[in-house]
């Protein structure tokens, strides 16, 4: 992937949605919930504060993260789905 996010943005590869629920019922594509976790594949250099200092990023490539359900912007690069979010939209590292 040749994508380099700017500022405090992070590129996430969403985890695949579950095909079945615990009871074994198969869920059709139209009824699947959007995943809320994924793997960080690219990280920007960090945000510049009002005083001119660079604020370092706390996530790194390879981290599994949880993010808000409707966060970020979905993009497709080389037939792969990615999500670009601000670091502040990431809820936790798992």
Characterize the structure shown.
With 94 residues, the protein is mostly beta strands. It is built from no helices and 8 strands. The chain has a 6-stranded antiparallel beta sheet with strand order 6-7-1-2-5-8, with no helix packed on it. A two-stranded antiparallel ribbon has the order 3-4.
Radius of gyration over C-alpha positions, nearest whole angstrom: 15 Å
Shape: elongated
Structural class: mainly beta
Q: What's the helix count?
A: 0
| Pattern of helices and strands | EEEEEEEE
Q: Strand order of the main beta sheet, please?
A: 6-7-1-2-5-8
Query: Largest sheet, described in full?
Result: 6 strands, antiparallel
State the helicity in percent bands.
under 10%
How many beta strands in the DSSP annotation? 8
Beginning-to-end CA distance, first to last residue: 23 Å
**Percentage beta strand:** 35-45%
Please summarize what this structure is:
The chain is mainly beta. Helices cover 0% and strands 39% of the residues. It has strands spanning 9-14, 37-43, 47-48, 54-55, 64-67, 73-77, 80-86, 90-93.
Summarize the topology:
Elements: E1 9-14, E2 37-43, E3 47-48, E4 54-55, E5 64-67, E6 73-77, E7 80-86, E8 90-93
Antiparallel strand pairs: 1-2, 1-7, 2-5, 3-4, 5-8, 6-7
Q: Characteristics of this structure?
A:
6-stranded antiparallel β-sheet, single chain, two-stranded antiparallel sheet, 94 residues, 0% helix, elongated, mainly beta
């Amino acid at each position: 992937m040749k994508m380099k996010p700017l500022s405090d943005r992070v590129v996430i590869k969403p985890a695949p949605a579950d095909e079945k629920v615990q009871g074994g019922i198969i869920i059709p594509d139209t009824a699947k919930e959007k995943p809320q976790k994924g793997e960080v594949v690219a990280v920007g250099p960090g945000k510049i504060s009002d005083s001119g200092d660079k604020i370092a990023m706390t996530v790194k490539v390879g981290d599994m993260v949880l993010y808000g359900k409707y966060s970020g912007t979905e993009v497709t690069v080389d037939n792969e789905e990615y999500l670009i979010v601000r670091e502040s939209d990431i809820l936790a590292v798992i």
